[in-house]
Amino acid sequence: MSDECHVCLLGLIFLSSLLTGISGVKVTNVFISSGENVRLSCNNALHDLKSTTWFYNRFRDSAAVELIYLGIKKKDTESHERLSLGSDCSLNIRNISKEDYGSYTCRQYVNGDQKQGPDAHVYLHILHVSSSQTEISAGRSVTLFCQLYSFAEVSCDDRIRSERIELFWVNQAGVKLTRSDSRYQILSSSDHCIITLNTTLLNEDHNREWRCEVTQRDQVKSSVTYTVKSSGEKQAHQSVMEEFLLDVQL
Ligand SMILES: *[C@@H]1O[C@H](CO)[C@@H](O)[C@H](O)[C@H]1NC(C)=O
Ligand SMILES: *[C@@H]1O[C@H](CO)[C@@H](O)[C@H](O)[C@H]1NC(C)=O
């Protein structure tokens, strides 16, 4: 293949990755873990806050909720205390919660009612990890659940397939934990949107890290780390059994 064709092939790949939304609408996929802050770009030329409206749909068929209307933040939305409008018309969301997943749209108007350019569509995907318990002792089993909350036109399953999204648990060295590793039971839900890690804690697990990663087209997009901590002072009668706390870090 000539160099020129490599360039046009790359161009096509780039273009197709932009055009993955419904009916060829340009969509940006953003992956983030709960607790983090995110900035969603309005992506257009008009840097005029007073012409900018952001709205949100959690599901395809749910009614759109206006978050920002012509530069002014609506006060009646669940997330309003965590939202702000950036000087470039981007939408900033602090301390992401798993309920923030969905589709965000930026629309700009000129002269009051004329739409300026195409809308910017952002699909926000949120990685969230929880555990069956926060305190545990050596010899007891623990289950960590890692779930991707995604805007889905169809099902979570179809989105994961069409966007080539995958969830993994990896160890401290970044090596993927698999079913064949006898220490761990790794289970994927039938729709592939939850991956669970079940293991029995050992005395030597203090400070051990397990990380859940979400990848799209084999690139890591976001991750959450669980660290096992010894819970400090132990009573004499507990000396045989180490007690642990599980800490989530982004
Ligand atoms: C972030 O939100 C969680 C609830 O989702 C809350 O418990 C926590 O205190 C918040 N953190 C900050 C820094 O506001
Ligand atoms: C985790 O694995 C242990 C040992 O196989 C099992 O007893 C326990 O029920 C499992 N826990 C969950 C929540 O699947």
Automatic annotation (TrEMBL):
Report the superkingdom from the record: Eukaryota
Could you confirm whether the keyword Signal appears in this record? Answer: yes
Membrane-spanning segments: none
Q: GO terms for biological process?
A: interleukin-15-mediated signaling pathway; positive regulation of ERK1 and ERK2 cascade; T cell activation
What Gene Ontology cellular component terms go with this record?
external side of plasma membrane; membrane raft
Stored CDD domains = Ig
Q: What residue range is the signal peptide?
A: 1-24
Q: Which Pfam families match?
A: V-set (PF07686)
Instruction: Could you list this entry's UniProt keywords, alphabetically sorted.
Output: Signal
Residue ranges of every copy of the Ig-like domain listed in the record: 20-107, 118-225
- Keyword Nucleotide-binding assigned to the entry: answer is no
> What molecular functions are annotated in GO for this chain?
MHC class II protein binding; protein tyrosine kinase binding
The name on file for this protein is Uncharacterized LOC107715566
Q: Which organism is it from?
A: Sinocyclocheilus rhinocerous
Q: What is the lineage of its organism?
A: Eukaryota, Metazoa, Chordata, Craniata, Vertebrata
